[in-house]
Specification:
Structural class: alpha+beta
Distance between the termini: 27 Å
Shape: elongated
Radius of gyration: 23 Å
Helix content: 25-40%
CATH architecture of the largest domain: 3-Layer(aba) Sandwich
Number of strands: 17
Length: about 375
């Protein structure tokens, strides 16, 4: 397989989340590619949810290795769907997040099939990861017995010299403030929902401090954080707001529970303000001394000719569903910058290196050098 031709082809599909026509074209392209290489593949479709691409070398629910990822991207101008190579970098929407590494996954499964490696190996690529991964949830619900000894998660792009060992738990909370409308010139005749929302927010900030690029960064970033994701309140400028609400994005470390968060929020509410947990997940925490992870790390260092370190990130990962089932999750991807931004790019050499690391790891597993 021509890895970078496939990367370029994938980027050209305008697979913005929800653009089902382009997503279907992309999935059909991938299906044709791997089937021609001797791999089994399906496009799994669900009612009211976008589809999932599933390729596998064995008909089983008990996989040795799975690779997880997605092919949907955030919106961009049309020019960003025409990949451009300059100074060892490939620019374009999805180059880093994460079509380059979806191509790596396809490269890996074709290698396993064509070299007849004795591995039960599969690739799962969702199509709505940028808006909640409902397609992944639907896929897993339709495959309740699906397990994997090892899961390779390539959706943590940024620095190939870092393996992610921990991801936080994203918890989204909705604040709801009820007031009483009155004319804006006589605020004493009403109850301002906006004011009560702000008072509650001020109480929350006493527990969870604010951080910004132009302010000091905490020495230890493995802490609970929250940011004001959305806010709305009021109808017109001269009427006291009778209702206001906000969406808060909490990121909790593995030692903090949702129950802990609720206990803190209970203390922050002022009269007329309530909250509800919109969604929560599971933090992914891997044992940095796990023999599989250490073996992978050693192979990565040999390919890169430099040391590889573990890092902790605030983002979530779809691999959490497998971590909950006991899978060993190895979160590693290539280098680049500008994820979700206009200047998104991936370092081409890092894509080649990730592909090389994956193949060497799979070969070691197949040859018994790393015991499954």
């Amino acid at each position: 397989m021509d890895l970078f031709q496939v990367v370029e082809d994938l980027i050209k599909f305008k697979t913005e989340t929800g653009n089902l026509k382009e997503i279907d074209k992309c999935l059909e392209y991938m299906k044709k590619l791997v089937i021609e290489g001797g791999v089994k593949a399906q496009i799994c479709r669900y009612e009211n949810v976008s589809p999932v691409f599933f390729a596998h070398t064995a008909d089983t629910n008990d996989f040795d290795v799975l690779i997880l990822g997605h092919v949907d991207v955030v919106p961009a101008v049309d020019d960003m769907f025409v990949p451009m190579v300059q100074n060892g970098k490939m620019f374009g929407r999805g180059t880093l997040d994460m079509k380059s590494f979806a191509a790596v996954a396809l490269n890996s499964i074709l290698y396993v099939a064509q070299n007849k490696l004795p591995l039960k190996f599969g690739v799962i690529l969702s199509t709505d990861e940028e808006k909640g991964s409902l397609s992944t949830e639907a896929f897993l619900q339709s495959h309740p017995d699906l397990t994997a000894k090892i899961v390779l998660d390539n959706d943590v792009g940024g620095d190939i010299t870092k393996i992610v060992a921990r991801c936080k738990n994203p918890v989204f909370v909705k604040l709801m403030a009820q007031g009483e409308a009155a004319h804006g010139s006589t605020p004493w005749d009403g109850i301002d929902a906006n004011e009560n929302l702000f008072k509650t927010w001020a109480n929350i900030r006493k527990i969870y401090p604010a951080f910004a690029k132009n302010e000091p960064k905490p020495h230890n970033t493995w802490i609970d954080t929250v940011h004001f994701a959305k806010i709305s309140g009021g109808e017109v400028s001269n009427v006291i707001a009778s209702h206001a609400e906000a969406l808060l994005d909490f990121r909790l470390v593995e030692t903090s529970t949702v129950a802990d968060l609720c206990a803190a929020l209970d203390k922050c509410m002022v009269e007329g303000v309530s909250y509800k947990i919109v969604s929560s997940s599971t933090p992914v925490v891997m044992n940095e001394n796990d023999p599989y992870i250490l073996a992978y790390k050693e192979l990565a260092e040999k390919v890169l000719h430099k040391s590889v370190e573990f890092e902790y990130i605030g983002g979530a990962t779809d691999s959490r569903a497998f971590a909950e089932k006991g899978s060993i999750v190895i979160m590693h991807s290539g280098s680049g910058e500008g994820m979700h931004a206009d200047g998104e790019y991936v370092e081409i050499e890092s894509v080649k290196q990730i592909a090389d690391i994956q193949i060497k790891f799979l070969e070691s597993l197949a040859q018994g050098k790393i015991k499954l």
